[in-house]
């Protein structure tokens, strides 16, 4: 009987509001891989950096959402260049303006109008004075802009989330639940809050509520590997092994370097009599996490498959 060494529910953790974030911390907060960050740098979407501030995180998150909406890097880059060219007062469109996808187009909201920046459509509807008013972003007026309001809401949501993590760590579960619910009220797309609520209810053995919040996390961010992983663990707990496998595979699709997902998939395949399918995932896990205590189990199971399956059939 295989021991389920890595099939544990995980939560999103935090260390309190910070001024600077390392690449690793930014990747964790936004569920990005190092490979993806480097690709964005190579594609000219972001400047190479060893660390980021909160404004940078907002920009990175916007790029991720644009790509989730179907916009490819060249289209995003052309749109940003066009915005800077046409709206001279805008230095960082990803933060100062609402940039979003509409079908295959990258669009930007300026005032109450939507513009396709490359073609400049709708710009002709504005007079010179109105255009100057719309694209003027002096520091004294920043808090009155829609972008500033959105950044303020995001900052509030992040602070509430960190407070929830602190309360949860201190054992105040009710206070943590209130904080995470406040995060969702401020930012309904904050998937980490749904994940942590799901984990609280999973720990309390309220599996129905846990599933509800994990599914909400997936709906908020379909590319959130941890949400899929935890949902897979929940389904295993419920005996829904086929559903668990689907979620673990989705976690790997979001993040091919997710060692624990490889581990759990290998366990599922091997315990269901499909050892050869397990081999690839055991090997992937060992490559990603060779020094962990669970690597001993992975090596043992690979050796068992080799002796019982490969040697026997040779």
What would your notes on this structure say?
With 314 residues, this protein is mainly alpha-helical. The protein has 15 helices and five strands. The chain has helices at residues 23-30, 34-42, 54-68, 73-86, 93-96, 128-134, 146-169, 173-186, 191-203, 207-220, 225-237, 241-254, 259-271, 275-288, 294-310, and strands at residues 21-22, 51-52, 98-102, 105-110, 113-115. Strands 3-4-5 form a three-stranded antiparallel sheet. A hairpin with a 2-residue loop joins strand 4 and strand 5. Helix 11 (225-237) runs antiparallel to helix 12 (241-254).
Summarize the structure in short.
With 314 residues, the chain is mainly alpha-helical.
Residues in β-strands, percent: 5-15%
Output mean pLDDT.
79
Structural class: mainly alpha
Biggest sheet overview:
3 strands, antiparallel
Physical arrangement of strands within the biggest beta sheet: 3-4-5
Runs in which pLDDT lies below 50 for 5 or more consecutive residues are 1-7, 122-150
- Series of secondary-structure elements, N-terminal to C-terminal: EHHEHHHEEEHHHHHHHHHH
Shape: globular
Counted by DSSP, the helix tally is: 15
The helicity comes to 55-70%
Q: How many individual β-strands?
A: 5
Radius of gyration: 23 Å
Between the first and last Cα atoms, what is the distance in angstroms? 25 Å
